What does this fold into?
Amino acid sequence: MRAEFDAELQRLEAEVQEAGNVTVQGIRGAIVALEDWEPPILDHLTALDERVDVIYRQVETDVEQMLARQAPVATDLRIVLGVLYTNVHLERMSHNCLRIGRLATPVDGAAVPREMVALLKPALLRGAEMTRVALDAFALRDEARARELPEMDELVDHETGALVQLALERGPGAWSGNAIFLARSAERIADHAVRIAEQALYVVTARRIEFSGSSAA
Amino acid sequence: MDATAAPIRIGADPGMAASPALPPPEAREIVFGVRGASVHYGTHLALRDVDLDVYRNFVTAFIGPSGCGKSSFIRCFNRLNDLIPTARVGGQITYHGEDLYAPAVDAVEVRQRIGMVFQKPNPFPKSIYDNIAFGPRVLGMKGGLDERVEQALQRAAIWDEVKDRLKTPALSLSGGQQQRLCIARALATDPDVLLMDEPCSALDPIAPAKIEELMLELRRDFTVIVVTHNMQQAARVADMTAFFTVEVGDEGRRTGILIEYDETARMFTNPQDSRTEAYVTGRFG
It folds into this structure.
C-alpha cells in the first residue's frame, strides 16, 4: 500500500518537473521570438504551452485522485499541496512565454528594438535559471536553494523596470506599449518562480513563508 | 530523537500558529492532569512516564500501534484497571485537580462521572429503555426516569430511531445503533467525561460516520477521550492527539511510551517527531 503511494507521489513530482522543463524551453523560445521572430516560433511556443496545459490537467486529476484515495498527511500532504500550487505557477509561466512570443510579433515589419531585447533577454534568462533553481529546491527539499530566489527576482525587477523606463522615455510609439507588456510578462515569470520556491520551503519547513517583493498570484 | 527523550508538547515550535479553531493553551480548562503515569500488569511495565493534560470540551484521541498501551492508559481515567487484579497504576492522575487515585475516592462514583464505551457494542439483554435506565436505577437516581432516558437517547442521536420501540430488545438494533445505545447508556448517569475505546472498530463502514458526528456533538457538553486505530478518524474528530508507540527493551519486553501530544491539526500536518511522522504517513505501524 505504502509502496504504491510512494510511487504515485514520485510520479506526481516527476510530472511537475516535466512541466518545469517544458516551461524553461518556453522561456528560451520567448527569447528566440524576441531576437529573431519568425512565424514558426509562435507554433513552437503554442505547442509547448499546450504540453504544459496537458500536464497541468493531469496533475490536477492525479492530485484529486490521491486526496480521495490516499488521504495524505504530514510531509506527504505538503508535497501534494506543493505540487498542486507549483503546477498552477508553471501553467501561468508557460502562458506568459506564449504571450511574449505574440507580443514580439513585428509591428509594421519592425522587430522588437535591439535595446529593448538587450534588457529583456537577461531578465528571461534569469527567469529560466530561477525556474530551474526553484524546481531543484522542491525536488531536493533544499531550503538554501529556495532562499536564493528573492535576490534573483530583485535583479529581474531591476531589468524589467529599466525596460519600462526606456519605453516611457521613448514616448508613444509602435513598441512602447508592447514593451510595457513584455516587461510585465518577464517579471511575472520570475515572480512565479519565487512562488515555486515558497512551495519548496513549505514542503521542507511546514511554514507558509512569503518572500516579499514578488506578486505572482 | 532517541526513544528516551521527553515527548514533544504543544508549543514546542513557537513559530507554528495554534489552530484557530481551538482556544489558546492558557484558556483551556484541564480536566485530567497526568504526570509520570505508568501501568504495570504484574511485573510487566506496559506503559511508562506519560505526561499530558486533557482539556474540557475537547475530543482527545490516543493513537498508536497495537500494544503501545493506549487502551491501558484510557482505562486509567475511570479506574477500570482497578478491576484487573495484577494491574497497578503509577504516577499521578488528577481529575479537576483532585487525585483520582486517592484512597478516599470512590471508584464507583468515578465511573459514574467518567463513562466508557467499548470497542464492541455490549447492550444488556434487556429492552432499549431498560438499558438506558439501568445506570440511573443502580445509582438511585430518583424521579424523571422517562425524561432521563429520552434525553440520553437524544444526546446519542438515536432517539428518533427508537422512540417508538423502547420496549423492544436492544439486541435487535443494528451494530451502529447498539453502539449509540451504549453511548446513551453511558450518558444517562450525567457523566462529565466520556471515554471511548475504539468505538467504531467493530462497526460496518457507514456507522462510524454517525458515531464521529456524535462525538463532535457531545464535545459541546462533555469531554471526550477516544482510542482509535483509525488515524483519519482521529484527524476528523479530535482536537488534541497523543501518539504512543512501543519500545522494546531487554529480553523483548514491550513498553508503551508517549511520543508526541499536540493539536490534531499539527500532528497530521507537521508532526515534530519523526516517529509520529512515520506512523501517521503509514511508513510504520
